[in-house]
Amino acid sequence: xxxxxxxxxxxxxxxxxxxxxxxxxxxxxxxxxxxxxxxxxxxxxxxxxxxxxxxxxx
Length: 58
Description:
This protein has 58 residues and is mostly helical.
């Protein structure tokens, strides 16, 4: 479950930047959101691979 917690923490950590970008038009916050979403994508892909490996192992 620690992987799930990592994802939750990443998304919750981006909440303020989402607000700054969408509500206030802060471009630097948009850059941080994009980086965070890329990190989330990478984490999700790693978890998918891990789950697939465990499923195929037995």
